[in-house]
Every structure is written in C-alpha cells, then in structure tokens.
Specification:
By secondary structure, this protein is an alpha+beta fold. It has five domains: 4-178, 3-Layer(aba) Sandwich (Rossmann fold); 191-278, Elongation Factor Tu (Ef-tu), domain 3; 296-359, Alpha-Beta Plaits (2-Layer Sandwich), CATH 3.30.70.870; 396-488, Alpha-Beta Plaits, CATH 3.30.70; 493-604, Alpha-Beta Plaits (2-Layer Sandwich), CATH 3.30.70.2570. Helix content is 26%, strand content 31%. Strands 11-10-16-7-8-15-12-13 form an eight-stranded antiparallel sheet. It has a six-stranded mixed sheet with strand order 2-3-1-4-5-6, sandwiched between helices. Strands 21, 22, 23, 24, 25 and 26 form a six-stranded antiparallel sheet that branches. Strand 4, helix 4 and strand 5 form a beta-alpha-beta unit. Helix 9 runs antiparallel to helix 11 and helix 12 runs antiparallel to helix 14.
Length: 605
C-alpha cells in the first residue's frame, strides 16, 4: 500500500493552446514513464487524430509517474470553455494545479476562470511560465503580469519550455515540495470520484477514479459489488489498475490513488462524470455532481440514403466514449432520415462532426445550431423544444423562455468600446467591468487588462459571436461563460418558402425584432445559390400568414422572336403572349429542386 505522504495528485490548467499537452509529455519523459510505441505521435496524452492536428485536448487523460520515490498522478484537462465541467471535476480529484501561462500570449480568460475554480476547491497553485524558448518575448513583463493579475510573487514562478524540456525537472521538484499529500482514511467505506469514463471493446465501460476514502481490492475469483451512488446502480468490476499512461492492471487501489475500474458494462450513460463509486449502497456521495446537459442542438443528415445506417452506427460508437453527446431520430421531407444531436457547445459540435467525417467516413448535411427553449402552452404545461418544427401553434403559446449565460471577456482595455458594442448587438445586458492590474502602483504594464461581464442569450452566443470577438480584438480577447437561467423571450418561427412551398429544413426561430433582418440576409444568399429555372421563382420568408421578406429568381428567357424577319408586329406579340402563357403554366406545375451544393451553402449562413 502506497504511503499517503508519498503521493502527489496534480492537474494542469491553462487556456487553449498554451502548451499544456506538450509540457505533460515532457513530464512523462523526465520521469521515464513508458512512452514507447508507434501509436504515440508528438503529443502522448492527446490520443485522437483530431487532438494531434488541432493542438487541443478534447478528452482528458490521466497518468501515473514515479519520481524520487514519490508517486505523481497527473490529470490532463481539456482547455476549452465547452468542457469546463470536466475541468472542474478533474480539479476536484487533485490537491494542486499547475497554472500554465504562455509566455507569448500571456494570461487569458480561461486562465482566470480556472484559477477561480481551483481556489474555490482549495487547491495549491503553482504558477508556470511556458514557452520561454521562443524568440522576442519579454519574460520580465510576463512575470509582472502574473504577479499583478494573479497575486503571485516573482520567485514563485517556475519558467519552463515544454518544447525543449528546459527546467522540467525543477518543476517536478516544485510539485513534490508544494503539492500537499492527499488526505483520507483507508478504513472508511470506499468513496471514489469518477472524473472520466470511456468505452473499451474488451473491458466495457472503464471509469477513471480518484479514491478519497477506503480502498478497492480485486480478485478474479470473487469480485466485490460496487455501487454508483447518484445513479443507484450496482456492478461487479472485471479489472482495476492505473494509467501508465496505458492501462496497467493491479490488484489494489488505496486512499489517495488515481486509477481505473473496468466495469464490464456496455452503457456509458450509467457512469456520469462527478458521480461517486462506493462499496456501500447507502454511502454519502462526494460533492459537485451534476448531470451533463446539452446546450446546443443541430440535426445531422447523411448526404445519401445509403449512409443512414453507417451514420447511426458511428453516432452510437462516438456516444460510447462521450456521455455528453445525445441523439434522437429525426425525419425531414427534403433531407430524409437523420438524427437530432445535443452538444455541450459549438466546439463540441464541430469535434463530433469532424470525427464522424474522418474516422467513420460519413458525409453530412448539418442544420443551423439551435438552443433549447421552454414553452408554456394554454393548459399551463411546459414543453421543451429545440427545432422550429416542434414549436406549438402560436394561439396555444402563453410564454416562451430561452437560456441566458453570464459571459466574462478578458481583454486589453483598448478594445473595450468595440467589444461592448458587439455584446449589445447580440442582445447583451451590461453587468460590470473589472480592472485587473490595479495591484502595485509601481508596476506599469504595457496593457491595462479588464474583464467585461455581460448577460446574454445563449442563442446569440452560438451564432458567430466568438469569431467576431477575435476579429475585433485582433485575437487578444478571450471569453468564458456559464449558464444562469431561462428568461422570457418574444420568439417567432420564420418559415422559408420556395415557389410558395415551405422548406422546413430552412425554417428558423428568432426574436420578433431580429426576424426580418435575418430573413432578408438568408433570402439574398438563397437567390445567389439556387439555380435559375425556365420560370421565375419567388423566395419568401413568413411569420404565420404574414410575408416579411421576398426575393425573386429571374427566369431564363428564350428569344422566341429570333426567327421572325420583318412582317407585321402582331406576329411578334402573338409569340410573346404564347410564351407568357407557357411560363405561367410551368410556374404552376413546375418543381424547384434545391441542389445539394446550394443547400449546404444556405445552411452555412
């Protein structure tokens, strides 16, 4: 059994793309943790091809290292705002965190947000300045920024390079020195926090755990019953072990240790991040549990009917490793059968989309992302809707509520005015401005940093807010958001009609005030993308029976009078009148087929 004072559990928290995964790899190399094998590429803990390519961590990883007689358990976390709940549970499994800051980019919104999370959980923070090998960076300015914004002393900052490995051993010594050993009682009933889960073809669902009290002994002949406290389910483990970083089987996991339990079960939905595993059914659960809730919804359709089954199989496989991904069957007259999917956020949606297209070779058509609305109808019943087709008859609706979020934007103050205008244009409500570097009056930093706080609808945030934020601030601003509550909204369904026929896949939900500008913009795109026909095609946007916008695609015109040479003018009029009648009849019976390419271009807007 491992002594508690020889165990160190720590995490690395950082903004996206600050070199967290690269530094983790250098720590593994410095401790001679087994990293050999062809399957490892540049970043050992980022296993997915998409993680390797984008340079971001999508699924968190854990790894056990041995260094100078100590066991160091690293829990690598995702850095993007969509995965903030996973970050909070990873931090809850640790006693300390490395606060990693990019020497070229400086402190960002996620850094401040995750620092708060870590402090609220009572973690010891070790400030680390990464990428010191980069040319033309001013390390002194960055140190002053860290001291002034986050309250550390200059001598506490560890300066490293994740790329070259410079000072990595010094950092390991600091982890041993500053990270408190875990607390707990091995004689108490088992209390283990689930901080991750994934599916293995041979082992079934595997849960990553941190043991706070008690221990797990495993014998193949007589496995003990274990319980998932929040879900009130029981299971018999088929294997226990540690991450090295591959799964390494053991027979015992004690208090303070990080490891895994192979459950043998096939459904990952039983094992939610933040739940507690115990050997007693009535054991008290660990705090901080919440059910992952989808915030953004979109419908995925296969481009051909033959790809429906492969898409269904692919989504099922992805859902085995991603408990936050939800999907249900959806049917469209225009696009056929597909799946309405729920995601944590826009990045989560993009990740799922790219993995389906790359790893499973499925071609997709994706509808515009929406959020969940709560609708109270005439019998005071509340229903939840995510798509325009689910909206009840307007005569039955008493009230519609939409989700709002508290957005925190960290930015140099020179972009403050433009960013405030951006937030207000996205229906944001101003809350507060915090000036961060007001610590030491003797320290003069190049940029005055501020945090803008706004409340705004989630629907406004998922349009193209993040891209505009980066454009306005030249890439310097960063943001963090968290859900507040549902608030009433004057929402309408805008139907799109092509040649007087409604196209349900193009309908959208919007506030009454913004419905017309959005409809006008969409119809202009449609006019450019839909091919011309032999008859004119009206494009309309309507709220109920009221047309709010219209564009017309002009017809091709054949010159029927070209063969006439001279003669009476009435002959020409007769031919033109005949053509006019033919076009009128064609318009009445003609069908407009929107080609795949045009449909995709329309949906992208």
């Amino acid at each position: 059994m491992q002594e508690l004072n020889k165990i160190r559990n720590f995490s690395i928290i950082a903004h996206i793309d600050h070199g967290k995964s690269t530094l983790a790899d250098r720590l593994l190399e410095a401790t001679n943790t087994n990293t050999t094998g062809e399957k490892y590429n540049e970043r050992i803990l980022d296993r997915l091809e998409l993680e390797q390519e984008r340079g971001i961590t999508i699924k968190l990883q854990a790894c056990k290292m041995n260094y100078k007689g100590y066991t160091l358990n690293l829990i690598d976390t995702p850095g993007h705002v969509d995965f903030s709940y996973e970050v909070s549970r990873s931090l809850a499994a640790c006693e300390a965190a490395l606060l990693l800051i990019d020497a070229s980019q400086g402190i960002q919104a996620q850094t401040i947000s995750n620092t708060r999370k870590a402090l609220n959980l009572g973690l010891t923070l070790i400030p680390v300045l990464n990428k010191i090998d980069l040319p033309n960076i001013n390390i002194t300015d960055r140190e002053e920024e860290i001291c002034n914004l986050l309250g550390f002393k200059r001598e506490e900052i560890v300066k490293v390079s994740g790329k070259t490995g410079e000072n990595v051993e010094l950092l390991l010594d600091e982890i041993i020195k500053q990270c408190p050993p875990p607390k707990g009682n091995s004689n108490d009933p088992l209390q283990a926090l689930i901080f991750d889960s994934f599916y293995d073809e041979h082992k079934g669902v595997v849960v990553a755990i941190r043991i706070f009290n008690g221990s797990i002994k495993y014998k193949h002949s007589k496995p003990q019953d274990l319980y998932i406290i929040q879900k009130q389910e029981s299971f018999k483990p088929t294997e226990i072990g540690t991450f090295n970083p591959d799964l390494k089987e053991t027979e015992f996991l004690g208090t303070g240790e990080v490891g895994y339990i192979a459950t043998g079960l096939k459904d990952i939905k039983y094992f939610t991040v933040g739940d507690t595993v115990s050997d007693k059914k009535d054991s008290k659960s660990l705090p901080g549990y919440k059910t992952p809730k989808s915030n953004v919804f979109a419908t995925f359709f296969p481009t051909t009917t033959e790809e429906y089954e492969p898409l269904k199989i692919s989504l099922n496989k992805l859902a085995l490793n991603d408990a936050a991904l939800t999907f249900t069957d959806q049917r469209s007259a225009l696009l056929g059968s597909g799946f309405k999917c729920g995601f944590l956020g826009l990045l989560h949606m993009q990740i799922v989309q790219e993995r389906l297209e790359r790893e499973y070779d499925v071609s997709l058509i994706i509808t515009a992302p929406t959020v969940e609305y709560h609708v109270i109808v005439d019998d005071n019943k509340e229903i939840e809707i995510q798509t325009p087709s689910e909206l009840p008859d307007p005569n039955r609706i008493k009230e519609i509520s939409e989700p709002w979020v508290r957005v925190e934007i960290l930015t140099p103050d020179r972009y403050m005015g433009d960013l405030m205008n951006l937030c207000q244009a996205h229906r944001g409500t101003y809350i507060n401005t915090k000036y961060l570097n007001q610590g030491d009056a003797n320290i003069q930093l190049k940029d005055q940093y501020i945090v803008l706080e706004y409340d705004m609808p989630l629907a406004s945030l998922i349009s193209n807010f993040f891209d505009q934020l980066k454009n306005i601030s030249s890439g310097y601003a960063s943001m963090e958001y968290e859900f507040i509550d549902f608030f009433p909204v004057d929402l309408v369904k805008v139907s799109i009609l092509v040649n007087f026929n409604e196209i349900p896949a193009l309908s959208f939900l919007e506030t009454r005030k913004d419905a017309r500008p959005k409809a006008v913009k969409l119809l202009k795109v449609m006019k450019e993308e839909i091919p011309r026909q032999q008859f004119s095609i009206p494009l309309q946007a309507a709220i109920g029976a009221t047309i709010i916008a219209r564009e017309d695609i002009r017809a091709f015109r054949k010159d029927v009078t070209a063969k006439l040479y001279g003669g009476d003018y009435s002959r020409k009029l007769k031919l033109l009148e005949k053509q006019k009648k033919g076009k009128k009849r064609l318009k009445r019976v003609g069908q407009v087929n929107i080609p795949q390419k045009a449909f995709l271009a329309i949906l992208k807007t």
